[in-house]
Amino acid sequence: MLLDFTVENYRCYAEEATLDLTRTSLKTLTPRPSSSWQEQTWRVAALFGANASGKSTLMGALNRLHHAVGGRRTLLHRPFVLDHERATQPSRYAITFTHEGERYRYSVEAHAWGISREELWAASQRWRKIFIRTQAEGDNSPTIEAGASLTGATHEVSRITTIKDLFLAMALRYRHATLAPVARSLRAMRFIHHSDMERSARLEWVMGRLAEDPEQWAAIVDAIAQAADLGIVGVELEEREVPPEVLERLRRVFRNEDEDAEIPDELLRRLQRHLVFRHTGADGEEYRLPVRRESQGTQTWLATVGPAVDALRLGQVLVVDELDASLHPTLTATLVELFKDPDLNTRGAQIVFTTHDTSLLDNSPTQLLDSGEVWLCEKNADGASEMLSLADFTSTRKGTNKQRRYLAGAFGAIPRVDTSSIRHFVMSMTDGR
User: Which GO terms describe its molecular function (predicted)?
Assistant: First the structure.
């Protein structure tokens, strides 16, 4: 479960910015015995703001740290470039999360030359150190200051950790007894970016689930398609032969690298799988359409809600950049409602997303988002992004029409539109025609 995420000196964020998913009722490091983490945290965090305000940048920072913990060589030093002094300072990341009901805080400082500091702490009544890693430019290996509870092959992992690697990532790779399970919990996040390539990859993922567990996932996919009133009565996975000319082209590609190479079985299986959507026509006859014949909105809905259902099932964090891309506002709200439904979301799954869909702020007919679930991103006069919670505005009591006030500029984080230059250009071009 995600409790908070902080970034500093990362791209447009010069100063420290924190996305906090804990409720104000949490006054101690851990919930009281009569409560739980699920009761003391928000299930939703929605980021609003103008274009280039820093919404996607924050999601990108979280994704970058997620990749780095997974072992990818990821450049974590991405400083704020509108300040010469900041360019030489480290980028900082910190994330607080739960693992097996316990609170952890993991932080990283990254320079252009590598990782200078990395810390992991756990909390019960007070914070206790798991490890602190320090390293200076030019050092061959990191210094690991281990806490009393750190057991496992710590020395062995430190020996293979280079200045470009996260110690936690190497511990995950080599299955460190204490650290690998914590790293896996930190990695339990799913990221969705709306591009044609990403959407295709997620549809491939859906097809993979249908192939692995057709009985369960056929029912899930049918329910997803029918819930959105898309005119679809069913979805099937169909396997077809790959055309011989396609196979021959692939063989030539692989044999350019290795004379004896064959097309990998997994690639063949992916080429053979096709999603087919069943529709009922006006004449009552059933029509079967391939996925490429479906609208972008239909593809986006299936490619987004499939991973969302899995996140709800497993109690994971789903991070979506531009949730409203190609989706009707009603479908966007429906997806958010799934995570806010305590009867459905029993494992503490969370959704963190960016959006321009201000209808989510409306309180008619009911209020979907609480003030603590709404975050506003805005750039200041120095070109640096700032982020604050709508709950910081004391006037946003329950029942306030947040959408109307947001669009009126009461909270900032909206575009400052000035079309005078465009008008001048168009008029001058028209006059000179």
Answer: ATP binding; ATP hydrolysis activity
Model confidence at 263, in pLDDT bands (50, 70, 90)? low
157 contacts 175 by C-beta, under 8 angstroms: no
CB 199 within 8 A of CB 246: no
Q: What burial letters (b/e) apply to 81-114, b meaning 16+ CB within 10 Å?
A: eeeeebeebbbbbbbbbbbeeebbbbbbbbbeeb
pLDDT tens for 36-52 read 999 999 999 999 998 88
pTM over 0.85: no
Neighbour-count burial for 147-181, b at 16+ CB within 10 Å, e otherwise: eeebebebeebbeebebebbbbbbbbeeebebbbe
Rg (CA), the chain: 25
pLDDT per position as a tens digit, 264-294: 666 566 666 778 888 888 888 888 888 888 8
Q: What are phi and psi of 374, to 5 degrees?
A: -110, 130
Say if CB 346 and CB 382 are below 8 A apart. no
Domain boundaries, the chain: 2-188+362-407
- Give the integer Cα–Cα distance in Å for 342 and 348: 9
CA angle 31, 35, 39 (to 5 degrees): 90
Residue among 266, 71, 273 nearest 161 (CA): 71
| 389, 20 contact by CB (below 8 A) | yes
Q: How far is CA 61 from the centre of its chain?
A: 10
Compute how many other C-beta atoms are within 10 angstroms of the C-beta atom of residue 412.
Answer: 17
